[in-house]
Amino acid sequence: MSDRTPVPYDVRWHATGTTTKRALELHAAAHLGVTPDVVNSGRLCPRCGSSRHGRPWLRAYGVAHHVSLSRSGPHLVTVLADVPVGIDVESVADVARGWDATLVLAPGESAETDLDRARAWSRKEAVLKQRGTGLLIPMTTVDLADLDEPAALDGEAWADLDAPPGHVAAVSWASLGG
């Protein structure tokens, strides 16, 4: 990550079995210095309006905060930020089993190994979550200039995160100046 790109987010990994609602409440309480009982969170699908799935939301004392979450197998990760944010964790083996380059890679992009493919998927899904669309927009619309280093994307930024063995994770945020 370059020294000129501020990192306005806080990432937390949660214990196996933690519900997404509880994870968001605990994360917000710790990050904001409040008690979990003043945190309200849920999900809202921008397409159908369902509260059973879709983009997560969070309020503390009635104030909205930018959040995102992702789960892969037993692993759950959340992120809170001062700006729009997205996060994704993927199993390298699961991505390898379901890989279809025509659904993921933009023209001119390549991903030679299973690890490269999982990283491309995770980075792109994090960007699309940050934009608020999720996978309603094709991953091929996100062009990652470099598959190995963090990059700035039109007022957006992304970075790889440490992840559990056999997994990759990435976070994307709207840059403060973008």
Please explain how this structure is put together.
With 178 residues, the chain is α+β, with helices and mostly antiparallel strands. The protein has one domain (9-174). It is 24% helix and 33% strand. The longest helix is centred in the last third of the chain and has 18 residues, at 114-131. It is globular and about 45 Å long. It starts with 8 loop residues before the first strand and ends with a strand. Residues 84-149 form the 4'-phosphopantetheinyl transferase domain. This is 4'-phosphopantetheinyl transferase superfamily protein. It comes from Nocardioides oleivorans. One of its GO terms (molecular function) is holo-[acyl-carrier-protein] synthase activity.
- Provide the spatial order of strands within the biggest beta sheet: 1-5-4-3-2
> Using only CA atoms, what is the Rg?
16 Å
Number of strands: 9
Helix content: 10-25%
Please outline the helices and strands:
Blueprint: E1 9-14, H1 20-32, E2 39-44, E3 55-60, E4 63-72, E5 75-81, E6 85-91, H2 92-98, H3 101-104, H4 114-131, E7 151-153, E8 156-161, E9 167-174
Antiparallel strand pairs: 1-5, 2-3, 3-4, 4-5, 6-9, 7-8, 8-9
Briefly say what this structure is.
Pfam families: ACPS. By secondary structure, the protein is of the alpha+beta class.
